[in-house]
């Protein structure tokens, strides 16, 4: 334990002198240092890299790029959807002036208040209206201002949106919620506390009939959001709020979609598989870089992108190769996405496993305002999990 504390904070003298009430890093810290988004290999730092993505359409690959952040990528995707399909609507609390995170900035000016508009402060009303619009043939994009506020609309999502097509039976072609997208900022920022930090994605992964998507970057946000709007399934689209401005990369200027329910191997490896999504991928990248140097190992990193229905085949193929699996996510570890991935890996890869499947998630407690960074998985926890898997 002493070694772990020293590795995380640099020295015990720092702990005794700093008197901090939150997690931070000293000048000599080696692992838990801020993510350098300007150099991380998880982002495209050149146009050539961005346009080399084989998942892009030919038109997008032959086009140009612009260097934008994640909230701007969401804005670009929404603008294209509104411009290309008159059925698309965008609404939510404060959406008309741009929203809390500016994702809908200038859209009301271009498309008018009959297609981009504010709603009352009622999540039940926002989602209920969106379901009705979708059933009438529109493609509504409803914004819930923070994921923490979605719970009053849980009944609408679970009992109406998710069940609509199944309930319609033979009439499903004319009675469904296809085209419904519920967008919401999610995850921690370091100071969100009880009501601006939650990651509720696992609650929706229990519900058949929904897709649950979490992008990791501007390129992914644009392509996955356009795919969600085009999808004939209702989609919960969670945008990691800390990445809105932090993650900046070259994004293809032309419209494109990225496949839903298809994982992406971000880095190939032979000894350990790490499965994650959203913001923790950057933590995983930092941890595996240090682990590969220290332990002379090779780590494979997979982004689920869609956490339900998730890409079981891709994950099991990786674990059957490496023999070890670690699942990392911000949300609470209990009954989380990691539990489902771990159970599936245990069933499908049991004879190939060299170590127990490990879950690294948020602690099973509410997030205190002063201790948010202690609750979210950090580089040290992922690094230690890699070491434990290799030494088992």
Strand order of the largest sheet: 3-2-4-5-7-6-12
How would you sum up the major sheet? Answer: 7 strands, mixed
**Number of structural domains:** 3
Shape: globular
The portion of residues assigned to helices is 25-40%
What's the number of helices?
17
Q: Give the low-confidence spans.
A: 1-18
- If classified by CATH, what would the architecture of the largest domain be? 3-Layer(aba) Sandwich
* CATH class category of the largest domain: Alpha Beta
* Class based on secondary structure composition and strand pairing: alpha/beta
The CATH topology of the largest domain turns out to be Rossmann fold
In terms of DSSP E residues, the strand content is 15-25%
Radius of gyration: 21 Å
How would you explain this protein's 3D organization?
The chain is of the alpha/beta class. It has three domains: 1-30, no CATH class; 47-252, 3-Layer(aba) Sandwich (Rossmann fold); 262-391, Rossmann fold, CATH 3.40.50.920. Helices cover 38% and strands 17% of the residues. The protein is built from 17 helices and 14 strands. It has helices spanning 2-9, 12-18, 47-51, 58-61, 70-84, 107-111, 123-135, 154-161, 164-168, 201-204, 218-230, 243-246, 280-295, 312-322, 337-349, 372-375, 379-391; strands at residues 65-69, 88-92, 116-118, 139-143, 181-186, 211-213, 235-240, 248-252, 264-267, 272-276, 299-303, 306-308, 325-332, 358-362. A seven-stranded mixed sheet has the order 3-2-4-5-7-6-12, sandwiched between helices. It has a five-stranded mixed sheet with strand order 9-11-10-13-14, sandwiched between helices. A two-stranded antiparallel sheet has the order 1-8. Strand 10 (272-276), helix 13 (280-295) and strand 11 (299-303) form a beta-alpha-beta unit. Helix 5 (70-84) runs parallel beside helix 11 (218-230), helix 7 (123-135) runs parallel beside helix 8 (154-161) and helix 13 (280-295) packs across helix 17 (379-391). The longest helix is centred in the last third of the chain and has 16 residues, at 280-295. The protein is globular.
């Amino acid at each position: 334990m002493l070694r772990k504390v020293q590795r995380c904070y640099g020295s015990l003298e720092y702990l005794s002198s700093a008197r901090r009430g939150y997690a931070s890093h000293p000048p000599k810290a080696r692992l838990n240092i801020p993510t350098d988004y300007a150099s991380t290999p998880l982002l495209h730092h050149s146009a050539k890299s961005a346009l080399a993505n084989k998942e892009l359409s030919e038109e997008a690959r032959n086009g140009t790029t612009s260097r934008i952040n994640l909230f701007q990528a969401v804005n670009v995707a929404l603008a294209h959807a509104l411009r290309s399909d008159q059925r698309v609507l965008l609404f939510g609390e404060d959406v008309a002036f741009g929203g809390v995170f500016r994702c809908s900035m200038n859209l009301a000016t271009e498309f008018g208040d009959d297609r981009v508009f504010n709603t009352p402060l009622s999540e039940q009303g926002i989602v209920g209206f969106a379901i009705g619009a979708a059933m009438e043939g529109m493609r509504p994009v409803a914004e819930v201002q923070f994921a923490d506020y979605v719970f009053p609309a849980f009944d609408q999502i679970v009992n109406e949106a998710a069940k609509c097509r199944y309930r319609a039976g033979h009439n499903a072609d004319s009675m469904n919620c296809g085209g419904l997208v519920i967008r919401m900022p999610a995850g921690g920022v370091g100071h969100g506390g009880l009501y601006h930090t939650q990651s509720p994605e696992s609650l929706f992964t229990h519900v058949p009939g929904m897709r649950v998507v979490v992008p990791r970057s501007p390129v992914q946000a644009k392509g996955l959001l356009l795919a969600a709007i085009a999808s004939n399934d209702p989609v919960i689209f969670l945008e990691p709020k800390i990445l809105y401005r932090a993650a900046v990369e070259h994004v293809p200027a032309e419209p494109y979609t990225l496949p839903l329910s298809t994982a992406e191997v971000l880095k190939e490896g032979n000894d350990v598989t790490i499965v994650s999504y959203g913001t923790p991928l950057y933590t995983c990248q930092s941890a595996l870089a240090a682990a590969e140097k220290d332990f002379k190992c090779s780590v494979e990193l997979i982004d689920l992108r869609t956490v339900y229905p998730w890409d079981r085949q891709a994950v099991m193929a990786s674990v059957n190769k490496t023999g070890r699996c670690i699942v990392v996510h911000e949300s609470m570890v209990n009954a989380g996405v990691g539990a489902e991935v771990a159970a599936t890996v245990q069933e499908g890869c049991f004879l190939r496993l060299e170590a127990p499947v490990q879950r690294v998630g948020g602690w099973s407690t509410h997030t205190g305002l002063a201790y948010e960074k202690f609750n979210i998985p950090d580089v040290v926890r992922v690094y230690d999990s890699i070491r434990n898997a290799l030494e088992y």
